[in-house]
Amino acid sequence: MADVLYQLPDDQVADLATITLDVGTEDTTYPLAYLTDGNIARPCKVNEVTATWKFDFGAAQRVDLVALGPHNFD
């Protein structure tokens, strides 16, 4: 297992998607836009315990890696 992952800026494709919150409601202080803005110090938050984010790329999109930054998930 690697301790460091190297990626080029073009490898980040999440901001190309239309993101919707299918389950839950967003905390307006921490909006959905924070999910892909590249700043891990600004989290996206919801008002519930569970939520479902949907990333719609409009067509098939290759995704090689999904990373979660600092979090407090159970």
Q: Please report the total strand number as a whole number.
A: 2
- The structure class reads mainly beta
Helix amount: under 10%
Tally of individual helices: 0
Proportion in β-strands: 5-15%
- Radius of gyration, Cα only, in angstroms? 13 Å
**Which regions contain 5 or more consecutive residues with pLDDT less than 50?**
none
Strand order within the widest beta sheet: 1-2
Secondary-structure element series: EE
Oligomer: single chain
Shape: globular
End-to-end separation in angstroms reads 23 Å
Written description of the protein model:
This protein has strands at residues 18-23, 52-56. By secondary structure, it is mainly beta. It is globular and about 35 Å long.
